[in-house]
Amino acid sequence: MTKDKIKLLLDKYAKGTCSVEERQLLELWFEQQQVINEESFSPQDKGRVWRYIDAKANPESIKKVRMPVYYRWAAAAVVLFCLAIGGYFILQRQTLKDSATELLANEILPGENKAVLTLSDGRQIALTPNNAEATRDQGVVITKNAAGRLQYKIDPNLVTGTGYNTIETPRGGQYEVILPDGSQVTLNAESSLRFAVNMQHQPKRVVELKGEGYFDVTKDPRRPFIVKSDQQEIQVLGTVFNVNTYHSSQKLTTLLEGSVLVNKTQKLRPGQQARVEADRIVVKDVDVNDFVDWKNNSFIFRNENLVSIMERIGRWYNVQYTFKDVDTKKVMFNGEISRYAKVEEVLHLLSVTSKLDFEIKNRTIVISNQ
């Protein structure tokens, strides 16, 4: 986490206003700091070592008292012993810090708000919580608001050209964006959204989606909002819906509010989901909460197979996975857990509800039968 994010969470924690997810993130960060800042010397030990060093460097500061030879030998032995012990603990502390660095490099953390904005001229801007950079692109001022969302403000006197901007989230990232027309889009991990810079001046508001996005579209009866993806086109006037295009074989559109038209033929009402497979559309009633769980910072598994679950875990925690036993792919699960839980907690939930083992090797999860 960035320093600004840590400072914000610490302040909220002190005021008792942290959400469950924020508290889990803060506690996870605190555990890491305990490893990094682990001290091998107590303050008293450090004081004694420095006094020995000072005495060796400044012998005149020590009152000269003649001692028997054996006392002097004993004192010398004590100094050598302390220096040896000090050197040992310094070496151990460095080893501990090296181990902690390696541990944190392989630490599997939940995803966070991050993305990359590619402007129409090819320039790229990293969108992270501590990046307050503002830029202008063809009359559009791109900034981040107090909530961390990317926001576009258009100066109609400066808008020129027909360029496109693209926002892309990596594995282990998600991002909320406010489009030029005021519509809000939340991108899940490993997703992208492409749209025209001059969207406000076009008869149709067209965006192109890859991956998964949650849309809250601003109503404008004169200019329909259209979401395009491979094998699918969704037309709306103003509504709330989720689109999942991760799989090439099927595209899912889940409607929460309003109405949409899928591929110009199939109209949905709230609580329905359209599954597009090639030129076929299958519509069914669903519990929409199961399909927007990621937007609500949760994993909800409803009779879901392990392959699908591991795909979601892999994207969010930015990890790889492998099935040691092929038959484990068909195991079905039901359950619910926070997306900000440690990956070990998620895997434990899956393990206790099945007869499977989940072993983490570096950043790869190995799945096998018990």
TrEMBL record:
GO terms, molecular function: sigma factor antagonist activity
Pfam family, one: FecR_C
Stretches assigned to the FecR protein domain: 166-260
Keywords: Membrane, Transmembrane, Transmembrane helix
Database matches in InterPro entries: FecR, FecR_C, Ferrdict_sens_TM
Transmembrane segments: 70-91
Domain Protein FecR C-terminal: 299-367
UniProt name for this protein: FecR family protein
